[in-house]
Design a protein that fits this description.
This protein has 246 residues and is mainly alpha-helical. Helices cover 79% and strands 0% of the residues. It has nine helices and no strands.
Length: 246
């Protein structure tokens, strides 16, 4: 039995949905593996450059008797993680309200031009996926907030510098920088989840828009992690490329 035009289009859209979703996960997971697991790529990135500065910060901290400023700076960074954790919790609550009752929203959206039709099951899957991303971001930010507390404790436990314990102070400062770096890594993972969630929003419009959105987010992450002016300044690169931005 031959399919009509609507069934043919829906079948093609299903293939596009699968291709777009596969491209999304390959891009997301592949970028994370390359940037976080390969030391050579990690050291060249903005994350590696800021971790070097973080280690210098903790070395300088270990040579100061008054470390209130260091704890204050770390506490400020931790409050940012708490704010984003609260934001993701609100987003999850809003999305949960749409699950199972988003037919009207779907009908309104699909009245717009160029918006692809989706089955109710696929629509719910899209909502669940974006909700899962925000849940993942919540745990990332919550753990980053907790790790910032541990880093503050490490600062408080830093030995007072003396002539006979320089190596001990430096080793402790490096561990404190490592804990603070772990907090920053998890916070960065939560922020990336926001980027990926914005790319996923394009799937509600069209699978091709989803692919373009994923590619756009990937380009933004690569540029900011490896070719941004902020990375050049933090890494101490004297000559900046023409037209580079923060």
């Amino acid at each position: 039995m031959e399919m009509g035009l609507p069934e043919t289009v829906l079948s093609l859209m299903s293939q596009l949905d699968a291709a777009a979703l596969a491209f999304y996960f390959i891009s997301m997971l592949g970028y994370r593996l390359i940037t976080d697991r390969l030391p050579s790529m990690r050291n060249r990135s903005l994350i590696g450059a800021i971790q070097t500065q973080r280690m210098m910060w903790m070395r300088n901290m270990s040579r100061r008797e008054n470390r209130n400023l260091d704890v204050l700076l770390l506490g400020t960074l931790g409050q940012g993680n708490a704010f984003f954790a609260s934001t993701t919790a609100i987003a999850v609550g809003g999305l949960a309200a749409l699950v199972g009752s988003g037919e009207r929203v779907q009908q309104l959206l699909e009245r717009l031009p160029l918006v692809a039709r989706s089955t109710p099951v696929l629509w719910e899957c899209k909502l669940l996926l974006i909700m899962a991303i925000f849940i993942f971001a919540f745990f990332k930010f919550a753990w980053a907030f907790r790790l910032s507390h541990y880093a503050a404790i490490m600062i408080g436990a830093t030995p007072i510098l003396a002539e006979d314990n320089v190596a001990q102070c430096d080793a402790h400062a490096d561990r404190a920088a490592g804990v603070a770096g772990l907090s920053a890594e998890h916070a960065n993972g939560g922020l990336r989840s926001f980027y990926y969630a914005f790319a996923l929003l394009a799937w509600f419009i069209h699978p091709l828009a989803f692919i373009v959105g994923t590619l756009w987010v990937l380009i933004i992450l690569i540029r900011r992690d490896y070719f941004s002016r902020s990375r050049s300044l933090i890494a101490g690169i004297p000559k900046l490329p023409e037209g580079a931005h923060s």
